[in-house]
Amino acid sequence: MDSNAAATEQAPPTPAELQRAEQPRLARRLGVGGNVLITLSSISPASSVFILGGAALTTYGTGVFWAFVIAGVVSILIAFCYAELASAYPVSGGDYSLVTRALGPAFGVATFFISLVSLPLILAVFGLGVADYLGVAIAGLSPLGTGLIVVALATVTACFNIRANAWLTGVFLFIEFAALALLAVLGFISIERSPLTLLSPEFLDPSTNEMAPLALGGLLLAVTQGIFAYNGYGGAVYFSEETKNASRSIAKAVILSCVITVVAEVVPLTAILLGASSLPGLFGAELPVESFLAEQSGDVVSLVVLLAIALAIINAIIAIALQAGRLLYTAARDNALPAALSRPLSRVTSGSRVPIVATATMGIIALAACFIPMDVLLTATGSTVAFSYLFIALAALVNHRRKAVAGAYRMPLFPLPPIVAMLVILGIILSALLDPAQWLSLAISVGIVAAGFLYYVAYLRPRSGTHLVLLDAEEEAEAGLGGERHA
């Protein structure tokens, strides 16, 4: 045997590895279905249709049909990238874990910074937005007070057993999909125009208040809106170490979550475009989807559906809180943080196998973020998704050339999925550069990425022997292939 190899085999474990070996691990208690339930809940297709879809209808008119279909294709290509990476590296931690292993620690830490900032801010955005929908039944709700209560309750719920959370989010998700199904039925039973009218994109020109052809640039911007509306299917990766046979199951969970989301959003939006009594009236409404719902079903049904959307948003907050806790726990377990922080944040409860300290910490950050004005929160999170997707696509492009583990998922049509995804994301970033209104959001995202690289170079790289210590190949194989030793 080579002397260097023998020395490597006999090297004593590092303090970080000893600490990790002694601690309880996340338990494998989810099947593919449970993972998909939580992931779909974090996406919240119903709130995407009402909020992002409604805003797109106002701005891009019938162009929403083509835009969301094209965005669906792009999203599925990105899902292929996630699926292959997650199958190769079945480790909790989301984008951070995948990018670290495929592109190296510098890109991984930059991705960690993106998620560390964006996840609690998104929790705050959703929490502050709940009052808009609960307000239809309870007048005078304070967005701040409501947001604080909802985020706090969601954080507590996220500290429960992962299987209990899967059941709970599943119940809320059923209500959410019932609301989407109602929208689709209302539109398709009262079709006012031929589907062929959707093939020529038109929008309501505010200068003339009449319908006009939508330019190609407008359609591309609408595609961007669609990509953001579908965002979240990669969240399945956060639960890799809690899903049975993860190296095979997570790929299925990612792709299923993406396909279900695309269908769940495209179908009701198409139904609304076909069933609205007047397209100018629909596009001119302040809240197009709510306006269509009230027109077709009346005030009572509309009230019930809006309350269902409030539940959908609360459900999304619970699911994202689960993801946020796994992100911080994984980074702490890897010693990507100072030791004084890593020790408590990497703890998992012995009974429920939940990273309670990490989950509660992210919840506290989200509670503090609720005091930030909504427009600032939206600006701070506006461009972060683009950089996350860009790193994932690049990671998939680089990683595909490595030898795959037996039974691991391999994306079809390689290298088309990552290349197309990268081109689209670069196009989104370019469009932001050309729009002065997006400069601040883009600058914040670039600053977050730069801070991640700087933190790695200045703090982690000089401490490479004790910090950022990843799972070894044997531990990753056990995590992915269904080992139950720690369950």
Automatic annotation (TrEMBL):
<keyword id="KW-0812">Transmembrane</keyword>
<feature type="transmembrane region" description="Helical">
    <location>
        <begin position="134"/>
        <end position="160"/>
    </location>
</feature>
<feature type="transmembrane region" description="Helical">
    <location>
        <begin position="254"/>
        <end position="280"/>
    </location>
</feature>
<dbReference type="InterPro" id="IPR050367">
    <property type="entry name" value="APC_superfamily"/>
</dbReference>
<feature type="transmembrane region" description="Helical">
    <location>
        <begin position="439"/>
        <end position="458"/>
    </location>
</feature>
<feature type="transmembrane region" description="Helical">
    <location>
        <begin position="63"/>
        <end position="85"/>
    </location>
</feature>
<keyword id="KW-1133">Transmembrane helix</keyword>
<keyword id="KW-1003">Cell membrane</keyword>
<feature type="transmembrane region" description="Helical">
    <location>
        <begin position="354"/>
        <end position="374"/>
    </location>
</feature>
<feature type="compositionally biased region" description="Low complexity">
    <location>
        <begin position="1"/>
        <end position="11"/>
    </location>
</feature>
<feature type="transmembrane region" description="Helical">
    <location>
        <begin position="211"/>
        <end position="233"/>
    </location>
</feature>
<keyword id="KW-0472">Membrane</keyword>
<feature type="transmembrane region" description="Helical">
    <location>
        <begin position="380"/>
        <end position="399"/>
    </location>
</feature>
<dbReference type="Pfam" id="PF13520">
    <property type="entry name" value="AA_permease_2"/>
</dbReference>
<feature type="transmembrane region" description="Helical">
    <location>
        <begin position="300"/>
        <end position="322"/>
    </location>
</feature>
<feature type="transmembrane region" description="Helical">
    <location>
        <begin position="167"/>
        <end position="191"/>
    </location>
</feature>
<feature type="transmembrane region" description="Helical">
    <location>
        <begin position="30"/>
        <end position="57"/>
    </location>
</feature>
<protein>
    <submittedName>
        <fullName>Amino acid transporter</fullName>
    </submittedName>
</protein>
<feature type="transmembrane region" description="Helical">
    <location>
        <begin position="411"/>
        <end position="433"/>
    </location>
</feature>
<feature type="transmembrane region" description="Helical">
    <location>
        <begin position="106"/>
        <end position="128"/>
    </location>
</feature>
<dbReference type="InterPro" id="IPR002293">
    <property type="entry name" value="AA/rel_permease1"/>
</dbReference>
<feature type="region of interest" description="Disordered">
    <location>
        <begin position="1"/>
        <end position="22"/>
    </location>
</feature>
